[in-house]
From TrEMBL:
<dbReference type="InterPro" id="IPR001270">
    <property type="entry name" value="ClpA/B"/>
</dbReference>
<dbReference type="InterPro" id="IPR012763">
    <property type="entry name" value="DNA_pol_III_sug/sutau_N"/>
</dbReference>
<dbReference type="GO" id="GO:0003887">
    <property type="term" value="F:DNA-directed DNA polymerase activity"/>
</dbReference>
<dbReference type="Pfam" id="PF12169">
    <property type="entry name" value="DNA_pol3_gamma3"/>
</dbReference>
<keyword id="KW-0548">Nucleotidyltransferase</keyword>
<comment type="subunit">
    <text>DNA polymerase III contains a core (composed of alpha, epsilon and theta chains) that associates with a tau subunit. This core dimerizes to form the POLIII' complex. PolIII' associates with the gamma complex (composed of gamma, delta, delta', psi and chi chains) and with the beta chain to form the complete DNA polymerase III complex.</text>
</comment>
<keyword id="KW-0862">Zinc</keyword>
<keyword id="KW-0239">DNA-directed DNA polymerase</keyword>
<dbReference type="GO" id="GO:0009360">
    <property type="term" value="C:DNA polymerase III complex"/>
</dbReference>
<feature type="compositionally biased region" description="Low complexity">
    <location>
        <begin position="386"/>
        <end position="418"/>
    </location>
</feature>
<keyword id="KW-0547">Nucleotide-binding</keyword>
<dbReference type="InterPro" id="IPR045085">
    <property type="entry name" value="HLD_clamp_pol_III_gamma_tau"/>
</dbReference>
<dbReference type="InterPro" id="IPR022754">
    <property type="entry name" value="DNA_pol_III_gamma-3"/>
</dbReference>
<dbReference type="Pfam" id="PF22608">
    <property type="entry name" value="DNAX_ATPase_lid"/>
</dbReference>
<dbReference type="InterPro" id="IPR050238">
    <property type="entry name" value="DNA_Rep/Repair_Clamp_Loader"/>
</dbReference>
<keyword id="KW-0479">Metal-binding</keyword>
<comment type="function">
    <text>DNA polymerase III is a complex, multichain enzyme responsible for most of the replicative synthesis in bacteria. This DNA polymerase also exhibits 3' to 5' exonuclease activity.</text>
</comment>
Amino acid sequence: MSYQVLARKWRPQTFTDLVGQEHVSQTLKNAIDGGRVAHAFLFTGARGVGKTSSARILAKALNCEEGLSVEPCNHCSACLEITEGNSVDVFEIDGASNTGVDDIRELRDNIKYLPSRSRYKIFIIDEVHMLTTNAFNALLKTLEEPPAHVKFIFATTEPHKVPITILSRCQRFDFKRIALPRIVSRLRYIVDQEGVSVSDEALTIVARKGDGSMRDSLTTLDQVLAFCGEQVSDEEVTALLGVVDRRLILDAARAVFERDLRGVLELVARVDSFGYNMRQFCQELIDLFRAVAIIQAVGDAQGLLDLSEAELAELAGLAKTQNPGELQRHLTLLLKAEGEMGQASFPRLVLEMALMKMATLRPAVPVQELLQRIAALEGGAPPAARPAQLAAAERTAAAPRPQAPVAQAAPSGAAPRPAAAPAPQAPRPAPQAAPAGPPVGSGDLWGSLVRFIKGKKPMLGSLLEQVYPVRVTPQSLELGCLAGSYELMQVQDNAKQAELRALAGEHFGGNPTLKVVALDAVPSNAAPSLSEKKSLEDAERAATLRREAEEHPLVTAAVELFDGEIAEVTEIKTKP
């Protein structure tokens, strides 16, 4: 005898065997028991949840030779023929293959004949939504007023494609996706009957692969048994099915919660070495963080999550230590990363950056608390949130600052002035630009000359700011430019040299000489160009401003209060 797969061998034969669809089985049993069996039924739901099995059980219950019963005997010839699929009075029609109007017309012609042996002639049409519009129209009248000996049972995974005229003539039953614990329980019963040794963790992986479908779960279990034999290990199941090991996901969550950057990166490397799909791993992480958030919100999430009791207990321990706002921020980052990984050339990099950001995420401060702290700062009173930090800031503010040396000494007999509490310093005014053309001999001959020329000829002055002053005196100018540079080409122009000599003579007096040299490198003994000098001064000014801001007591207090950092310091320009 050929091997029979588990999905067929353990197919439900009674309403009691139907797992996870008690609302359907109880309604049908009550209808049979009360003699209120409709002439047409529509079973809808996902794949592998028991629609066709329920149709066969209902057909056996209606045609059982031992009488109309809520549970078929499964021993009489009528029940056995329906189970084997060769009953002459129960027709199982594939709607995907018999879609035309001619097939429905043939069916309609056969309806008027009485059943050969059974009580009812039953038509089971699977995937009924595949019928054409003309086929549905040909079935309408017969479906509305069929003979007393005819029953219709339709099954479909896409009820929205069935015309409303058909839906209104049927009793509709929506089959649910089967919960994970129910599938695991059924798989445990089957493997015990088959004499197979397998752990609950492996069965949970198989059931999760089925995604709420009992048939898919049994098909997966068949594959596992073919690979592992009668001794099934968790590692073999994980390797065979290509699913992400649940322990890796839990380790990733713990590493994020513990802010372990190295652990996060090592875990991503392990996922990559195992050959797991990075996007699938990210999706599994999203499911885990969602489960933690739900457990944290409602406490008992037994009916809300497809998790085993052991997994629920483990996630409940994680949920107790986390902040709800932080979990939502983690989920936001993971969802964004999952969307980016669909188009990314380097999905591992996207996942690593997301997990690193999650592990280094600063705790969020509630808006109300921030407003209270700001109000406390504006009013001068320390907020209650962080009294120790603000008290330290006040002590720093009260400490006297070292005074700059004064030019004139105070009289010897004068009493020293009492030290006043330092007031918040006003922003320093921007340095005023030096007047153009300072007196010759002031020590800044080149700078004064360039400012003078820029006032007369702005374009020439801007060009000279990029030139190196090798040697500058009132009588001679020796200027250097890097070989091959644009500045060298411009300064070597005869017209510009004549213009430069004329302006230098006007500024210094006399008739200074001019020499332009090409430099292979920046000269070490020459002064920097004015543009370089300005850049150095700006950098030094920015460093000074940042240092003063970091040392300011109010800024220090604000950083402590908000647990922040100084990102940028901008000088406030005061009006003269």
